[in-house]
Design brief:
The structure is a single chain. By secondary structure, the chain is an alpha+beta fold. The protein has one domain: Endonuclease, Chain A, CATH 3.40.960.10. It is built from five helices and six strands. The chain has a four-stranded mixed β-sheet, with helices on both faces. Strand 2 and strand 3 form a beta hairpin. 19% of the residues are buried.
Length: 149
């Protein structure tokens, strides 16, 4: 038997805040992509990677020729230990939601590793400074490993 559970928003403010959060093209993602593009890097954004066996992953930034996938994780949605704060209303719902996101993140990273990808997950609070440097280092490293013709 399937049981449908609905969660009633705790307030109009909470509803408006959650509606305003988008799954892609967030401020930190756009800032990081702009910084990378300004440095001459070219990539795909939000491209769906079909890894076989029904496994699909959509990194925020992908360098397909290098098999590098980058995810920009929001502190709230992905459970940053430094900046996260759980809402007090519907606390168990939010705890389960964020823990589920963390499980999905780990599963997707495992799938990408199995498919031969390098994966970098960065926190929104690391964007663009630390994240930009780390991505450039990884791109340079992966390019140097490629066989020359």
């Amino acid at each position: 038997m399937i049981r449908l559970v609905t969660v009633t928003p705790s307030s109009a403010h909470a509803s408006a805040t959650m509606r305003a959060n988008h799954g892609r093209d967030t401020g930190p993602e756009v800032a990081l992509r702009s910084a990378l593009h300004a440095r001459g890097l070219r990539f795909r954004k939000n491209v769906r990677l079909d890894l076989g066996q029904g496994r699909r992953v959509r990194p925020d930034i992908a360098f397909p020729s290098l098999r590098l996938a980058v995810f920009v994780d929001g502190c709230f949605w992905h459970g940053c230990q430094e900046h996260r704060s759980l809402p007090t209303s519907n606390a168990s719902f939010w705890r389960e939601k964020i823990e589920g996101t963390a499980r999905r993140d780990k599963q997707q990273v495992a799938w990408l590793y199995e498919a031969g990808w390098t994966v970098l997950r960065v926190w929104e609070h690391d964007v663009p400074d630390c994240a930009e440097r780390r991505i450039i280092e990884l791109v340079d490293e992966l390019r140097s490993r490629r066989p020359t013709a």
